[in-house]
Design goal:
Blueprint lengths: L1 H24 L32 E4 H16 L5 H12 E4 L14 E6 L4 E7 L10 E3 L3 H7 L6 E3 L5 E7 L1
Parallel strand pairs: 1-2, 4-5
Antiparallel strand pairs: 3-4, 3-7, 6-7
């Protein structure tokens, strides 16, 4: 009987110790849980047809929107049933047309054509456009690119450093 009582006491003590351990670790922060065991949940939202992340505004110039609308009209008139029609409808349904400011501006704006001059008097021109109008010309640069962001934060006469390390001055904004 004494042996049995000792075994019961030892078992009870073991169970109590396990219970205390479980209670102690049940309040561990999620920061200490391995991610490969508990992967994060995805929102299920997909990138737009423009490649922008979910929730990002798809800016476009009035000229860019007109060009896409003309392309859509031409495809529909030709009886085309390609995926491009669906893509164009999605793009046009998601864009926000940005009108240029009235009159001349000393600040770079969306849709502006900016002329830059480097220290060797070499000039280059860039037009800031939306992601869906990058094929509108050889000087088109997306407003979300590093160059586009640097230009949009600048004014006439400012100097900026390009990705290749050159320093250029903004000499003209149209």
């Amino acid at each position: 009987m004494i042996k049995r009582r000792l075994c019961l006491d030892a078992l009870t003590e073991t169970l109590n110790a396990q219970d205390r351990t479980e209670r102690r670790f049940s309040s561990v922060s999620r920061a200490f849980v391995r991610e490969d065991v508990d992967p994060p949940q995805r929102s299920g939202r997909k990138r737009s047809s423009s490649g922008l992340p979910p929730g990002a505004v798809n800016y476009i110039t009035a000229q860019g929107a007109a060009r896409l609308q003309a392309e859509l009209a031409a495809l529909c008139a030709a009886g085309d049933k390609s995926e491009r029609i669906t893509e164009l409808k999605q793009i046009l349904g998601s864009v926000k047309i940005v009108e240029p400011p009235e009159g001349p501006s000393k600040s770079v704006f969306f849709g502006a054509t900016v002329t830059l001059r480097d220290l060797h008097d070499k000039t280059e021109t860039h037009t800031i456009v939306g992601v869906d109008e990058l094929d509108s010309g050889p000087d088109a640069v997306s407003w979300i690119s590093p160059l586009g962001k640097a230009l949009l934060a600048s004014q006439l006469g400012n100097r900026i450093t390009l990705e290749d390390g050159r320093t250029v001055k903004i000499v003209k904004i149209e």
